[in-house]
Amino acid sequence: MSKRRSHPSRGGVATLFLIICLAVLGVVCAAMCRAIALEERLARHERQRTQAWWLAEAGVERALARLAADPGYAGEQWSLDAAQVAGQERAIVTIDVRRAAAERNERQIVVVAEFPLGAAAIRQTRSITWNIDSQGTNP
């Protein structure tokens, strides 16, 4: 005679438990991947924002150097290719120099840096007033 088991098989319970554990692990992994992708996007945006800020600073320095050589300098649009921006994407720095209303030797310098070029460009603006007679001193 064959013996019948008096208790049900536990193989089905173990399989169900394993499936639940794998599902929870999959959800945790998906959440971690999403968090990593978000952090990468935030870090890239911060790098681009910092690069745009430094480009604006460079634009101010460029304007000051040009004003030292030519007091009639009125500004320019400075295009930088990827090789000039640490091998990253292209940028444009717009420099606008105007006479300040207060004195004829003062210039208002406004610099707008856009990086990277395109729909997602980040803009950084720097504005200073500079006295042409004070060449050699910091703004």
Q: Would you mind describing this structure in some detail?
A:
With 139 residues, the protein is α+β, with helices and mostly antiparallel strands. The chain has one domain (12-134). The chain is built from one helix and four strands; from the N terminus they run H-E-E-E-E. A four-stranded antiparallel beta sheet has the order 1-2-3-4. The chain is rod-shaped. The N and C termini lie far apart (103 Å).
Which characteristics define this entry?
1 helix; 4 strands; alpha+beta; four-stranded antiparallel beta sheet; 139 residues
Biggest beta-sheet profile: 4 strands, antiparallel
Helical fraction equals 40-55%
Q: What number of domains?
A: 1
Stretches with pLDDT under 50, minimum 5 residues:
none
**Strand order across the largest sheet:** 1-2-3-4
* Alpha-carbon Rg, integer: 31 Å
Mean pLDDT: 87
How much β-strand is present in the residues?
25-35%
How far apart the termini lie comes to 103 Å
Name the overall outline. rod-shaped
The counted number of beta strands is 4
N-to-C order of helices and strands: HEEEE
Number of helices: 1
